[in-house]
Specification:
This protein has 219 residues and is of the alpha/beta class. It is 26% helix and 32% strand.
Length: 219
């Protein structure tokens, strides 16, 4: 098990792992593989189930540390967010999800993960959770809506620290099915730049996810 350049993320051959929280020893979230080494427990991070894992494997550089506060938009049932919870073990993950069905599963995941705060809300309206979410070090978004770039920009503008960074997962077919994915990515990048954000890198998520890309940004 080797360390990567992302604190708390490990690699064994072509596979990513995060160290399971002490409170979650032996607990799986999505039937992932668990490996025990030197009295530590590592959970495999499947890039076919997690777009963030796919982005990391495809070369996206991510600033994520153990004491970070993270705003996660589109938390779903907790697959990816459980690994983020592992990494920011001394920090907090604010998990926004609008589906009550997905929230039921997310609540189960959060029972043992005290650094994970589930929030049932629509990310189109960032003011709705302003009494819960503070200024954060990272905004991560994975939402399948046509206006996903606008959602990202509005949340980053409200919650991201000036020294922080953001990651947007672009789902091309959700934005405009009539355009080629590359053109959608370019259009989204233009929107982000108009929102006073600087694009650090964009990576395609193939072969793990078709017609998806990840963009990292800073102010």
């Amino acid at each position: 098990m080797k360390k990567t350049n992302i604190e708390g993320v490990y690699r064994d051959k072509k596979q990513l792992f995060t160290e399971n929280l002490e409170s979650c020893r032996g607990i799986k979230v999505y039937n992932e593989k668990i490996i025990k080494k030197n009295n530590r427990e590592y959970r495999s991070w499947n890039p076919y189930r997690s777009k963030l894992a796919a982005a990391i494997l495809n070369g996206l550089e991510i600033d994520l540390k153990k004491d970070f506060k993270v705003l996660y938009l589109g938390a779903a049932t907790g697959t990816t967010i459980s690994h983020v919870s592992d990494v920011v073990k001394d920090g907090t993950v604010y998990a926004v999800e609008m589906s009550p069905i997905a929230m039921k599963k997310l609540l189960e995941v959060s029972k043992k993960r005290k650094n994970l705060i589930p929030i049932l809300a629509n990310a189109n309206h960032p003011d709705k959770y302003s009494t819960i979410v503070p200024q954060v070090d990272l905004v991560y978004q994975d939402i399948s809506q046509r206006n996903q770039a606008n959602i990202f920009i509005s949340n980053v503008s409200k919650y991201l620290k000036k020294s922080g960074s953001g990651i947007l997962i672009i789902k091309a077919r959700s934005v405009d099915i009539s355009l080629k994915p590359r053109q959608v990515y370019e259009n989204v990048c233009s929107q982000i730049k108009n929102g006073d954000l600087k694009i650090l890198k964009i990576v395609d998520l193939g072969p793990f996810e078709r017609d998806h890309a990840a963009i990292s940004v800073i102010f």
